[in-house]
Amino acid sequence: MSDTILVTGGAGYLGSILVPELLAQGHRVLVLDNFLYRQNSLAAVCAHPAFTVVNGDIRSEATLRPLLAQTDVVIPLAAIVGAPACAQDPVGAHSVNFDAMRMLLDRLSSQQKVLMPTTNSAYGTGGEQNHCTEESPLRPISQYAQEKVEIEQRLLQHENAISFRLATIFGMSPRMRMDLLVNDFTYRAVTDRALVLFEAHFKRNYLHVRDVARVFLHALDRFKEMRGQIYNVGLSDANLSKLELCQCIQRYLPDFVVMEAPIGQDPDQRNYIVSNVKVEATGFRPAFSLDDGIQELIKGYTMIRKQGYGNI
Fold first, then answer.
1. Which domains does the chain have, with CATH numbers?
2. What is the pLDDT of residue 283?
3. How many angstroms from the chain centroid is the CA of residue 225?
4. Residues 157, 158, 160, 161, CA torsion sign
5. Number of H helices and number of E strands within the chain?
6. Cβ proximity of 167 and 208 under 8 Å
């Protein structure tokens, strides 16, 4: 059965992959985006009769209310993403990531469904032996992670909601982000052939951007069995340290030189091994490996340069 789906921030890094997939599945898709990065990442779907786009601000109730009135499902992607971007404008980030999300959730009917991406950076340095499941204590450090945790708590008060704690995303997208770890390291390997690496042994989990779209489609098909739950989503064979990630890249770019340094710090202190068993038990399996993504990025970086392709 087709739904009318509102995707806020639908022209962003995730949305510009997800929206065409939703349309291909027969859904009507409404996108609300302020086009902060002057992107035309949804140009290819403008001819689709089931696609509607609104250039507007998620913080405006007057803009949001008529869109919600038409909507069966909300996928709220609009956000100031990442600790560095939030640190540049903490007041603006709070208004988008917290105030606007609270307003959206408060205006949903009990029948409307919500599929929301959160972040596993909320685990901070993880728990015992750095191993994290959905029941592990949360230790958010940055403003970005703290507000994501608060909004997730509000989200789960809604009876028709699912939260996905996403691993670090990678891969090519029409609205490219090159400030994400795999994307960044691969770009440096392609262009600079060298990288100075801090906190080299900090581990985290990874996930291809197209598998984010796939897990949303998976949840739409299995909403009744999955609703009301939190799911970690990542590659179970890719809980890797930064150094191990670099070694993966070196398989394809063997002249890539990595030098460890005692300076530098991740603002979220992400260092954990994440279990994805819960989402896998619903039948979901990622389709794209870390190696797939690295090879894809190497090809992509023959076409683009870094300026303008980040959130900071």
1. 4-170+206-233 (3.40.50.720)
2. 98
3. 23
4. negative
5. 12, 14
6. no
- DSSP state letter for 142: S
- The pLDDT tens digits for 186-230 are 999 999 999 999 999 999 999 999 999 999 999 999 999 999 999
Q: Which residues, 6+ apart, have CB-to-CB distance to 79 below 8 Å?
A: 9, 96, 97
DSSP symbol at 117: E
* Residue 127 DSSP class: S
Radius of gyration of the chain, Cα coordinates, nearest whole angstrom? 19
Mean pLDDT along residues 126-142? 83
Rounded to 10°, the helix 290-300/242-250 angle is 60
Which one has a higher pLDDT value, 142 or 73? 73
86-133 residue pLDDT tens: 999 999 999 999 999 999 999 999 999 999 999 888 888 765 578 899
pTM of the entire structure?
A: 0.95
- In contact, 189 and 256? CB cutoff 8 Å: yes
Name, in order, each residue with C-beta under 8 angstroms of 108's C-beta and a sequence gap of 6 or more: 68, 74, 114, 158
Do the beta carbons of residue 200 and residue 271 sit within 8 Å?
no
CA distance 198 to 270: 13
Nearest-angstrom CA–CA distance, 241 and 272: 9
> How far is Cα 7 from Cα 20, in angstroms, rounded to an integer?
11
Please name the amino acid found at residue 48: H
| Mean confidence (pLDDT) of the chain | 94
Distance CA 46, CA 24 (A): 13
